[in-house]
Amino acid sequence: MNCRGCGTPLALPLIDLGTSPPSNAYLRPEQLEKAEQWVPLKVQVCQACWLVQTEDYTSAESLFDADYAYFSSYSSTWLAHAESYVAEMVERFALNEHSRVVEIAANDGYLLQYVARRGIACLGVEPTHSTAQAAREKGLEIREVFFGRDSAAQLVAEGWSADLMAANNVLAHVPDINDFLGGFATLLKPAGVATFEFPHLMALMAGAQFDTLYHEHYSYLSLTAVQSLCKRNGLEIFDVSELPTHGGSLRVFVQRADGERRARQASVQFMLDIELAAGMQTPEYYSTLAPAAEQIKHDLLRFLLQAKADGKRVVGYGAAAKGNTLLNYAGVKPDLLAWVADANPHKQGKFLPGSRIPVVSPERIAKEQPDYVLVLPWNLLHEVSQQQAQVREWGGRFVIAVPELTLL
């Protein structure tokens, strides 16, 4: 396989997680009688541009289908993050009623609702029908297409050239990353700004966050790799900031390379230097993740097996994609993790892909009073522990497995 960024043949493996179904392919009860599609989950590193990427086995259309079950609005933490982002962008770039904002991967309207409330014209691009329909129910205008140069040109023809384009946690999800970024260079006004938010590869490596590797994430991004990608597609990075979201993310600000250019902030070179000093442009840097993942798997299995031997009941919270990677890699089934609670009604009544663990309403936690609650989206531990504080009333404990098994 060649690098999807620069075309160089790939020869440096990062990790092999065996096989698993797509992490967001939740099963309806009637699908339990049928076989699932299990495909290899292997990740490699390009030693030319340092883009980390999955090997190609599945198409985007099969991963992001009409039944796609990830809805952003069920996390209060994420909603607050989106509202804060909108306020910051409006102030920094003087957006007003004459501006146009386009969000790529608008999901269920979690962010654009705050743009619309300010009287600013906005449009969402969202290829999954389930989430696009939820956004429309909020009164938002949505284009149900995959974004790239062609769809960007069509939006320009419709008068949607953008002052601001937002793309949160989508840059990693596109198989043709060059076509995707080329669409931003097409749709931005000459003085327009685009922001990309994505989990920082350096945080992934430092925290052994192997569970964030799954088929829907085609790429795992450093600023080094993103700068190379932007240059290749007519874009220029002029600022970057670090965020606590998703275990450690970057927000990158870009502009058209041929437009009205803003001065590059010192933050860009500062972060590039940090990545260089960490060794992110050396093969040795990528050798630590596989053994760390194996240790996490063994520790989790020891905990679950011991809990079962002791007559303790363990359940999960958060039917997250990262949890599915963890559970399938470790081979966990309902005998060790009875069920997983999730606030998203689109997931309740379904079953996790691969493990086939049932997804239930959070109300079941208080009803059954389990001994342990394994929080699979560990990045939301604070939010979950506050929402489910009653667990401590009967002596229950919260557990996370990444970056190491921790009982709280």
Look at the structure and name the CATH superfamily of the largest domain: Vaccinia Virus protein VP39
Indicate how many domains the architecture comprises: 2
Structural class: alpha/beta
Helix content: 25-40%
> Could you describe the largest sheet, including whether it forms a barrel?
7 strands, mixed
Number of strands: 17
Q: What distance lies between the first and last C-alpha atoms, to the nearest angstrom? A: 43 Å
CATH topology of the largest domain: Rossmann fold
Strand content: 15-25%
Estimated radius of gyration? 21 Å
Q: What is the number of helices?
A: 13
Low-confidence region ranges: none
H/E order of the elements?
A: EEEHHEHEHEHEHEHEHEEHHEHEEHEHEE
Q: Kindly report the average pLDDT value.
A: 94
Describe the structure.
It is a single chain. The chain has helices at 60-63, 76-92, 112-117, 129-136, 149-157, 177-187, 201-206, 223-232, 266-278, 289-309, 321-330, 363-368, 381-387, and strands at residues 12-20, 39-45, 52-54, 100-104, 121-125, 142-143, 162-168, 188-199, 219-220, 235-243, 249-256, 314-317, 340-341, 359-360, 372-375, 397-400, 406-407. It has 408 residues and is α/β, with parallel strands linked by helices. The chain folds into 2 domains: 72-286, 3-Layer(aba) Sandwich (Rossmann fold); 289-407, Rossmann fold. A 7-stranded mixed sheet has the order 6-5-4-7-8-11-10. Helix 5 (149-157) packs parallel to helix 6. The radius of gyration is 21 Å and the shape is globular.
